[in-house]
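Following up on my earlier message about 1-deoxynojirimycin. Here are the inputs again, as you asked, copied directly from the submission form:
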Amino acid sequence: MSVYRGLLPKPRTVIISLAVVALVPALAGGVSASDSSTDETALQATRGAASQGIERRVNDLLSRMTLQEKLEQIQLLSDGQVTDADAQAGVGGVFSLTDPAKINHLQHVAVEQSRLHIPILFAYDTIHGYRTVFPIPLATAGSFDPQVAFDDARFGARETAAVGIKQVYSPMVDVSHEPRWGRIAEGGGEDPYLGSVMAAARVKGDQGSDYSARDKVAASVKHLAAYGQPEGGRDYNTTDMSEQRLRNLYLPPFKAAVDAGADTAMCSFNAINGVPGCANPETETQILKHEWGFDGFIESDYTAVAELRACPPKNPDMPPCGHGVAADGPSAGALALNAGTDMEMVSTNIRDFGPQLLAQGRISINRVNDAVRRILRVKFRAGLFEHPYVDVSQADSAQLRPDAVAAARADAARAMVLLKNTDSVLPLDPAKKTAVIGPLANDQHDMLGPWWGQGRDADAVTLYDGIKAQSPGATYAQACPVVNAEPPAATNNDVCGSTAGFAAAVATANAADQVVLALGENREMSGEAASRSTLDLPGYQQQLIDAIKATGKPFAVVLFNGRPLTLGAVAQSSPAILEAWFPGVQAGNAVADVLFGKVNPGGKLPVSFPQVLGQVPIYYNHEPTGRPCDVTQKYTSRYRDLPTCSPLYEFGFGLSYTSFSVTNLRLDRTSVSPNGRVRASVDVTNTGSRRGDEVVQLYLHDPVASISQPVRRLRGFERVTLDPGAKRTITFTVDKKDFGFYDNRGSFVVEPGEIDLYAGNSSAATLTASFNVS
Ligand code: NOJ
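Thanks, got it. Here's what our run produced:
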């Protein structure tokens, strides 16, 4: 069984409305939110005992601070901005500084030379590892195993804390239906339930039960909110959405992170319905702070407060600007603070204009105090007042330790998704001669993916090296180059932009028994500010597949990429496809483990792969229409030039080297009260001849509701390992937090009527059973 029972989020000891209780997702296989674990109890106990002392100390400090000192705490500066004078003045936070000696130096200045000796909170974007880079978070979500996310966060926290950083800007939990958006790589994919499970696991890994521990850091859940749904898939772009979508689709992973203990959050660049994330009282104050009882602080994203301003000619002083909800810096500072933003990153409006805004009555001292109180509370919880300094001599030895590297290898393999395997091309026989071909075949740089932290290219194992280690006679040909360019120089031909090396690659293939083709994107094509207008394999990679296919050699395509791609032509021309994502520092070893069958792949897609770009957005949890897609009929919701309604590969899909059957869905009751629960059991059997993993998935549909409900919603999953012939019964529990939903007034409602369940091994599951809520 998977291990995620111990990682369940727990509601905080705060006053929350019924609607919010109902939002707590039943993470993991139907285990109820009331189940407790040692981990959660420890968290609550630590918080309970320590909190009184902390509140006293916070209030004492606050009572002695001048206005200027308070405004300095609200300021968050980058490594490039900060000076000793800022530390002396009492700056609140510094991010992206990674040299432990420099961190200690600034901390000494803050603690010894500032009037009230308040330590600085140092922060960093440890997104999927600090030095030991794990697979990108999208890949991790595809493991359908929260232990993978937990490992990634735990080792990342250990390495990050070792240099003196006590806050990470992670987890990034933006649900996204936008494969063009480069930041889809950083999140948990298209589903709020899967995203919630992963978010909670990451927070537990980062913080443990007490993030004052030397190897723990405070987690910052981001980006609040709905940043994953930018119009046109262009990063930073605006979002317009209904209240029900915001609450049902985009907010649940934030709630799960907060329930798991996340004490900081980051407001987003984008606007929802015209209201920018860092000026949004609904998401920041009403929902996060009041409904969910979040008592930590919210930092703005990078210059997001300044970006509230109108651009020239209204605001000729300087960019950044753009949203046009504030005429000038003072207005931007007031808007952000009043909406609930507690700390300003990079831009300095709240600090600089705070005195003037207070004098004019545009902000209140209560709100200033509230922001500072939240920041100090986190600093106390982080143990910074007791242990402000880092042991510089231990910083290096904490990096790339064998246990972290071993976990990075196992977890990368666990995340890979086998998309196609005709005639059991895979696993390959390592005793045969293997040609490793393709632009990414002997590549270190791109294996780390976007947001590589302090990962170094030289640490990464290339696919060729990983394969050689297990199949010593392996040969290599690059076939075509990779250019790691950034805009405006970047093009879609940066990967495989020339066919000049194809002849040599074909010769290498001809001289081998089997071929592994390493294709995909470069790492610059994903991450922040890296949206693409096409989802095809860049450059001449399809032609490379065709050239290798023409040799008649058995071959498998291994894909390294950070987003769903349109793989129709690849699937038509290739017998086997392994989606490896950007696997991190152990890339080559992990892929070789899967290719040669040491690891039987069991990952599933955390996001739909469209057939063609024009289908985007295409996602399994869409609402129905009055004219459901039917390709045999004209007047239905379809494309006239596409003979299908489906994605190429659906959410939750993934193959194995063995086969499984999921059968016998049964319920313990067919009628339930709104406060009751239903247990759904299903049998999973390994019907093949190898030991392997299957992810059993439970989906729910409410066919008649006051507002149209998604055709399916994932409400439980369990990744199991079974020997050949072995059978396991999996039981999921669903209750009102599963069959209820948020309406457009923001109320959580549980309506009477039929609820349909579907069980299987992807979102196309066909086993079905129903019960009645009455
Ligand atoms: C901007 C990004 O949007 C955010 O995710 C990141 O944490 C900050 N920059 C700091 O690097």
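One observation from looking it over: The longest helix spans residues 38-64. Hope that helps, and feel free to reply on this thread.
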